[in-house]
Amino acid sequence: MKKIIINAIPLLSKKTGVGRYIYEITKSIINSNEFKLSFYYGYISEEFLDNSKIQNTFLKKIILKFDFLKRIVRKILIFYSRFNKKKYELYWEPNFIPYKGIKADKLIISVHDFSFILYKDFHPKERVEYFENNFFPNIYRSDVIICFSYFTKKEILDILKIDEKKVKVIYHGVDHNLFKVYNDFNINFTLPKKFIFCVGSIEPRKNLLGLLNAYNQLDENIKEKYKLVLVGFKGWNNDSIMDMINKNNKYVHYLGFISDKELAKVYNLASLFVYPSFYEGFGLPVLEAMACGTPVITSNVSSLPEVGGDAVVYCNPYDVVDIKNKIKMVLNNENLQEEMIKKGLKRAQEFTWEKAAEEHIKVFKEVLDS
């Protein structure tokens, strides 16, 4: 049985995009019994940790708050990786930058997007510096690069100038046992009777200021009927966003980070899901909302049209008036909503984590046999 090591450090935090991807793909790979897996958590282990049971400790919160502490932690993790004397047949780095100390005959790297190059303002300075210093020297070591949209594949080819055969597109999936249409809506917090919903980290990239401004421009009678509910952990550079949320607390409700089960039920209860992100390498929330039977408005840029297909309404994320008009159009047209729900449910069925894992396994075998 071939030995594979996986960087699983993102599993030590709350399950956001990259963490969810690693968790879902690895879970299916384990169930396949195709490989002998080891995991790097800052130490080597053969245990696959369920991050739903990992607490976000006070120490971790302090580290995440200060850039110099993040730099120290990264240096420690790189340092400790060098103490690993084992050599593996394949190292899968699911999060951009491989650790130099992990030794393997073959290397596969997953690249989620190029926002750290193309949209530096979307990231803290410390993160941009880390990527600039470590991404490019390492990416050319990879035998194969996995990405999650043809949009990102084109960026990889344009920016890295590498052989197209080395780049594999594998769409993300959705957990249809979790993100589905529910009849039971028990949750531990209060929601408005009707609401527009958006999920994403509270930071510039998700264009929450654009959504808030668009929502504020809606007629008062619409805002009275449909409140705006936001979910997501507090990212960085979010003072202006939080100020605007707080100033509009009559209509805007911020729930913070909630569990996956709660998230699925909030999708179900929402009248409309709006995701006007400036830039995505895939756009998992769009897929989750469709799977829950919620009409979706999303941006007409980057990878998002690949996810939404013809099942969603598109807006220009740079045009607040267009976002407002699309929200008004969908809310005022029940026939359109019903059509979007049907198309969304059908579209979501095309994406499964099982299919994504099978494609990863296929790539792993091809690289190991080459």
UniProtKB/TrEMBL annotation:
Coiled coil: none annotated. Keywords: Transferase. One of its GO terms (biological process) is lipopolysaccharide biosynthetic process. CDD domains: GT4_MtfB-like. Pfam families: Glyco_transf_4, Glycos_transf_1. GO terms for molecular function: glycosyltransferase activity. Residues 188-346 form the Glycosyl transferase family domain. Residues 17-177 form the Glycosyltransferase subfamily 4-like N-terminal domain. SUPFAM superfamilies: UDP-Glycosyltransferase/glycogen phosphorylase. This is Glycosyltransferase involved in cell wall bisynthesis.
